[in-house]
Amino acid sequence: MRIAVVYKSSTGFTERYARYVSKELDADLVKYSDRKKVNSGDYDILIFGSSIIAARISAVEWFDKKRGDFKHSFLFVTGANPKENNPDLDKYIASEKAKGHDMVYLPGGLNYEKMSAPMRFVMKKMFLPMVKKESGENSLMYKMVSSSYSLYDEKYAKPLLDEVRKVLVENKE
Ligand SMILES: Cc1cc2nc3c(=O)[nH]c(=O)nc-3n(C[C@H](O)[C@H](O)[C@H](O)COP(=O)(O)O)c2cc1C
Fold this sequence. Notes:
Elements: E1 3-7, H1 13-25, E2 28-31, E3 45-53, E4 56-57, H2 60-66, E5 72-79, H3 87-98, E6 103-107, E7 109-110, H4 117-135, H5 140-145, E8 149-150, H6 158-170
Parallel strand pairs: 1-2, 1-3, 3-5, 5-6
Antiparallel strand pairs: 3-4, 7-8
Flavin mononucleotide binds at residues 9-15, 51-55, 78-81, 108-110, 115, 119, 122-123, 127.
């Protein structure tokens, strides 16, 4: 079965996971800007990787529209949140699942250096003051999001790789 990994990434976290996933699955790696090259005549499985921006999965509308064309489709999403012991994240994942977005969440981080100027502006003027108000200036969360950090770890991609490999095995028989 042929697999395409389409990814949308601004600061590199989603791209890094997409590269790893495509290498592990021997899949073609396609930037979101080249998405028109990906069609169901050439691929059986579509994997879409994106990130959470202001509590929304970026470009998920494209995936929603496109996924029905393929025999199988998978969604992975990166964000600033740590995965472990994070009830707010669990709630968010459940709310997206209710909308039909059954995703694998992969912790990314924040990279202020690679953010576009408007994005950095939003982070500094809206996101940081919001975290400060909600969690307090001395909170771990506020300290974490005040500068760049990475939570990237290949281990988080294992559930996604397992799901896709299960489909590959089922279709071999
Ligand atoms: C403007 C902006 C808003 C963001 N909003 C959220 C958010 O609501 N929840 C979250 O977990 N991460 C949020 N993030 C963090 C990104 O999802 C995270 O950095 C992601 O890994 C970026 O992926 P990329 O490097 O592939 O672009 C935000 C980042 C930016 C720049």
